[in-house]
């Protein structure tokens, strides 16, 4: 299914109009209803697509070209504004359809809560799933100000569903004391850094289905100021790209991915959607087997 956003011509660079033969499907989740600081990530998916026109179709990292890939851009899901419960149900239903059709779901957010129904559906299909979470924030709260549907809760929900030892967190540098304690006791937890610890755990992930969720705020605000909850002390875009390339290695079976929390209004330079767009290109060329 293609939604209005894609019909208007706003599609990721070099995407094909052929859904049936596509290996991957890009879809937007324009939701920022539960954010605790700055809204605006609902506009992320559209802007990531728009700036993709500035990308080269060739990746010199992977020696691959988008002309060699088969992917379809469905546009943004028409989520009901202000109704997070219904929006999450719609996301889950759509992703279930993609998985039933054998597609690689590649989601664009939106706040990080949108990843929760995606992870849930992917886990239903792959019960031995491993989750790789790259983020500045732990997202391990049970609730935020009494609300369990919050952008600070999706990884806690995933850990309780999948078992914490199937969750791998990298780059975390912000959270409550309880979140950090929970992570250390229940999750494969690698705070502050991304690439080096990721490379160390890749052998134990070999052969397993893996879902990758990237919150753009894992990057230092100097590299990605356009996000709702910027957090000082982050990694560089070079390191984040290298992490994606590490997952492109032999034996790693990534079955879906998302890039979330791009809020373009806070970045007039547009470096945040630009780096997100490049991440999407590298995911398509490196992770969609």
Automatic annotation (TrEMBL):
Any one GO biological process: putrescine biosynthetic process from arginine, via agmatine
Gene Ontology MF term list: agmatinase activity; metal ion binding
Listed cofactors: Mn(2+)
Top EC class of this enzyme: hydrolase
Keyword Oxidoreductase: no
Matches recorded under PROSITE patterns: ARGINASE_1 (PS01053), ARGINASE_2 (PS51409)
EC numbers: 3.5.3.11
Pathway in which this enzyme or protein is active: Amine and polyamine biosynthesis; putrescine biosynthesis via agmatine pathway; putrescine from agmatine: step 1/1
Domain of life, source organism: Bacteria
Keyword entries, A-Z: Hydrolase, Manganese, Metal-binding, Polyamine biosynthesis, Putrescine biosynthesis, Spermidine biosynthesis
UniProt-listed InterPro entries: Agmatinase-rel (IPR005925), Ureohydrolase (IPR006035), Ureohydrolase_dom_sf (IPR023696), Ureohydrolase_Mn_BS (IPR020855)
Free-text comment on the cofactor: Binds 2 manganese ions per subunit.
Catalytic activity, as annotated: agmatine + H2O = urea + putrescine
Pfam families registered for this protein in UniProt: Arginase
Binding site for Mn(2+): 112, 135, 137, 139, 215, 217
CDD domains hit by this protein: Agmatinase-like_2 (cd11593)
Family under the similarity heading: Belongs to the arginase family. Agmatinase subfamily.
Function of the protein: Catalyzes the formation of putrescine from agmatine.
Matching PANTHER family: ARGINASE/AGMATINASE, GUANIDINO ACID HYDROLASE, MITOCHONDRIAL
Name recorded for this polypeptide: Agmatinase
Biological source species: Paenibacillus aurantius
């Amino acid at each position: 299914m293609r939604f209005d956003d894609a019909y208007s011509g706003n599609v990721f660079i070099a995407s094909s109009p052929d859904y049936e033969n596509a290996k991957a499907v890009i879809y937007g989740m324009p939701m920022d209803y539960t954010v605790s600081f700055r809204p605006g990530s609902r506009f992320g998916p559209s802007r990531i697509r728009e700036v993709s026109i500035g990308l080269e179709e060739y990746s010199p990292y992977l020696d691959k070209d988008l002309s060699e890939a088969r992917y379809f851009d469905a546009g943004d899901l028409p989520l009901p504004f202000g109704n997070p419960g219904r929006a999450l149900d719609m996301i889950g239903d759509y992703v279930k359809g993609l998985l039933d059709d054998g597609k690689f779901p590649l989601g664009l957010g939106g706040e990080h809560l949108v990843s929760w129904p995606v992870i849930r559906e992917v886990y239903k299909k792959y019960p031995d799933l491993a989750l790789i979470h790259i983020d500045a924030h732990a997202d391990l709260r049970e609730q935020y100000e009494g609300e369990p549907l919050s952008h600070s809760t999706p990884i806690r929900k995933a850990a309780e569903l999948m078992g914490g030892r199937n969750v791998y967190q990298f780059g975390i540098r912000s959270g409550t004391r309880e979140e950090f304690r929970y992570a250390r006791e229940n999750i494969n937890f690698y705070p502050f850094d991304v690439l080096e610890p990721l490379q160390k755990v890749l052998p134990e992930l070999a052969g397993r289905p893996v879902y990758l969720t990237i919150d753009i705020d894992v990057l230092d605000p100097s590299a990605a100021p356009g996000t709702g909850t910027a957090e000082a002390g982050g990694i560089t875009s070079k390191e984040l790209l290298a992490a994606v390339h590490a997952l492109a290695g032999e034996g790693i079976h990534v079955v879906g991915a998302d890039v979330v929390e791009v809020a373009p209004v806070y970045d007039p330079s547009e470096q945040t959607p630009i780096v997100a767009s490049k991440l999407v290109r590298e995911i398509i060329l490196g992770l969609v087997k």
